[in-house]
Structure formats: C-alpha cells, structure tokens
Amino acid sequence: MRLPLLAPDVALFAPFGEFIDVPAQVGLRRMYSQWLAPVAGLALQFHTNRVAASTLPLRVDRVERHPHAAQLFLPLVASQYVVTVMAADAAGAPDPASAHAFLLPPTIGVVYRTGVWHAGMTALDTEGSFAVMMWRGAADDDVFAAIPSVVVDAPAAVASSGGRYG
C-alpha cells in the first residue's frame, strides 16, 4: 500500500490529535494543557530523544499506541519530520487502510490522542531530537503492533490539502 505524504492539515489530523504551533500574533498565547490532564496512578514524564535520519520513500511496518495518555512531541532539532497515524479497526487493531502521513516543519509539534496508532517519530534529512511529554506508569504504556507494509511517498507528493497549514 502506498501512502501519499501530505502537508499539515488541521481538520484531517483532528481525529488523531493536534498540531502544536505558535500564535499568529505577538502577545497571544495558545494553550495545550488540556492534553496533559492528570491520569490516575500515572506520573507525568518529560524526556528528550534522538532519532536517526531517514530517507523517502519510508516503509512503515510497525506502529504503536499509548492506551492511557496523550503523547506530546516538540521538535528541538529537526529539518523536517514525518508523522504517520491510523485509526483502529472495530477490534482495536491498527487499520492501515485509514493511515495518513504528514510532512511537518521543525516549527510545528504534535500531540497524539490517547490510544491513537502511530509510527515512531521519523526525522528526514538529518538526525532529529524531540522533547516528549506523557503520563506513564502502567504495564502497557506502550503497545506495539506489526502491520502490512505501508510505503510513504517522496516529498514531491506533498500537496496543499486546504488545511490551516496547507
């Protein structure tokens, strides 16, 4: 299955989470605290990570989800990166037919809704580093699943999708 690489589209991404960006005007504030509401029995964790550079086309054959909490990523060092998400089927398993892949600049972060299936963070061109926040502490904080390979197309496939960023 081939998956076109999309420009950020707020409406298309909404079922999976939210893009994190800065306000359009100086002096304004955009809040994201609702994504970090306390989760009983879990502790808020903040860490940084570093991911290797990848090249397009990408092959996605494994996804993950976090059934107890949203997960927030802010790029610290990145040229651009790919976010791949998909819905769950009726049994809760990942549904590759519903997948979307977005090409994001280093000025936009991402927060995944609780339980959303997604590929690991994928930096393009250069290594990437991200700040990550989420509530953790359950035995199944991270759930992984193998999927039939999904190939994410090259940047030439990026087209304006009509969203706030497109």
Descriptive notes:
- With about 170 residues, the protein is an all-beta fold.
- The protein has one domain: Jelly Rolls (Sandwich).
- The chain is about 0% helix and about 45% strand.
- The chain is built from one helix and 14 strands; from the N terminus they run ββαββββββββββββ.
- The protein has one helix at about 10-15; strands at about 1-5, 5, 15-20, 45-50, 55, 60-65, 70-75, 80-85, 100-105, 110, 115-120, 120-125, 130-135, 145-150.
- Strands 2, 5, 8, 9, 11 and 12 form a six-stranded mixed beta sheet that branches. Strands 3-10-7-13-4 form a five-stranded antiparallel beta sheet, with no helix packed on it.
- The chain is globular.
- The model is unreliable at about 160-165 (pLDDT under 50).
Q: Which SSEs are present, and which pair or pack?
A:
Blueprint (H helix, E strand, L loop, with lengths): L1 E2 L1 E2 L3 H4 L3 E4 L22 E9 L1 E2 L3 E8 L5 E7 L2 E7 L13 E5 L4 E4 L4 E2 L3 E3 L3 E9 L6 E10 L14
Parallel strand pairs: 1-14, 2-9, 5-12
Antiparallel strand pairs: 3-10, 4-13, 6-14, 7-10, 7-13, 8-9, 8-11, 8-12
Task: Looking at this protein, list some descriptive labels.
Jelly Rolls; single chain; 166 residues; disordered C terminus; mainly beta; five-stranded antiparallel sheet
